[in-house]
Amino acid sequence: MIAAIKRVPGRPAANRNTSIALVAVGILALGATASEAGQRKSWRDANASVGSGRSFSGKASFYGNESGSKTASGQRFNQEAMTAAHRTLPFGTRLKVTHGSRSVVVTVNDRGPFIKGRVLDLSKGAARAVGLTSRGVGHVVAEVQ
């Protein structure tokens, strides 16, 4: 039975049944969240079925001013490391990225790029290795290793 709540100006509404109901709903919500958290997998295990040899191409850019901040995978960003950001590939995916005649193997550890028309964001070190730093943006071919 739900009792009607009468509010008296200047005094808080006191209703034991309402308080108990709110506590019960809160406990149920926390329990559901905890059980879902136990089912989550590590990013290293996510979508591990991406096959070797799959390739894509498009515009890539680079980033490096965020050194030390955490990436989407939880790793600290190192602008000199051979890493990349991709919107959907699983973290840990290794890509052979080619720009012109130069190639580098990078590991996906972040999400992005968030600019329309771009397929990869390379770390500054990876961009330097393929000669992308002078222009900032360039056409690349990426092959899953």
UniProtKB/TrEMBL annotation:
GO terms for molecular function: lytic endotransglycosylase activity. GO terms for biological process: cell wall organization; peptidoglycan metabolic process. Transmembrane segments: none annotated. It is an enzyme of class 4 (lyase). It holds the Pfam family DPBB_1. InterPro entries: RlpA (IPR034718), RlpA-like_DPBB (IPR009009), RlpA-like_sf (IPR036908), RplA (IPR012997). The keyword Cell wall biogenesis/degradation applies. Residues 57-140 form the RlpA-like protein double-psi beta-barrel domain. The keyword Lipoprotein applies. Its EC number is 4.2.2.-. Keywords: Cell wall biogenesis/degradation, Lipoprotein, Lyase. It comes from the Bacteria. Belongs to the RlpA family. Lytic transglycosylase with a strong preference for naked glycan strands that lack stem peptides. This is Endolytic peptidoglycan transglycosylase RlpA. It comes from Afipia massiliensis.
